[in-house]
Amino acid sequence: MNSSPITARAHTNIALIKYWGKKDMDLIIPQNSSLSLTLDHFYTDTTVKFDKTLPRDVFTLNGHLVENPKVNHFMDLVRKLAGIQIFAKIDSINHVPSAAGLASSASAFAALAAAASKAAGLDLSRKDLSRLARRGSGSASRSIYGGFVEWCQGTDDQTSYAVPVEEKLDWPIGMLVGIVNSGQKKISSRVGMQTVVETSPYYQGWIQSTTADLKSIKKAIQERDFQKVGEITESNALKMHALNLSAQPHFNYFEPMSLAIMQEVERIREEEHIPCYYTLDAGPNVKILCLQADASAIQQILASKFGQITFEFAKPGEGVRFIEA
């Protein structure tokens, strides 16, 4: 079987309620449920073609040949699911800085799940696509859908998957993304979260607190209470990063510029009376949740203070889809 090339596009998502810690490292079952916003500006296009003449999977990222054991393992999962043993050529174009805390793995594995499964002859539901994408990267389970998405932690491979909370948003919100450093982070998410689970004395408090945050933010989204959504988002991020500072050995993803931007966002909110709230994932880049009507004013203030930093604006994005190669 030589398949036709199949191309899928998936957008990155930014968690408003974070997942930080796994119950099962192999199956990627999280310690807590999470909620994210899919963004339109950052995405991955991946093309997969199975070819019986290949002696192994061939993976190129942004035009460069890359050895990636995670991709090889993921393709083995797809082959097992499809009952085939043929290797594939995988071409991925990432419109997201990799490993910089901008959820590049979310869009990457969501796109790969869609393209590889279809190229292998599978016709998976979005629920099953979400389950498959999760095996590559936990946050990829959420990039199958657009808008607000919840990843239900579940207890095993069958029950851990994402569901849409609200896909077609009529709410003019968005996110400014401050690219403090697009380089690879020193401590991967995988290593960081495992260190926290094993050593932070505050971890059980995080689980309880984040479960309450998830319930509260879903209610605030339903009620279109932007202030409440922002406050929960910011607080949840700070609690996640506090875990990292409490781990043994302790670590953090902040850079001096990250902290300066966070302080400026608080100043804009308090002194300029423009509602905006920050969140950070496993990296130094600051994401600022705001209303679309305020984005330009916030962007101008930040650009005047941090001229060396690029601030890119993103609106809510759509779920994974197939595109013409």
From TrEMBL:
Its EC number is 4.1.1.33. Keywords: ATP-binding, Lipid biosynthesis, Lipid metabolism, Lyase, Nucleotide-binding. SUPFAM superfamilies: GHMP Kinase, C-terminal domain (SSF55060), Ribosomal protein S5 domain 2-like (SSF54211). It comes from the Bacteria. Signal peptide: none annotated. Pfam families: MDD_C, MVD-like_N. GO terms for cellular component: cytosol. This is diphosphomevalonate decarboxylase. It comes from Ligilactobacillus araffinosus DSM 20653.
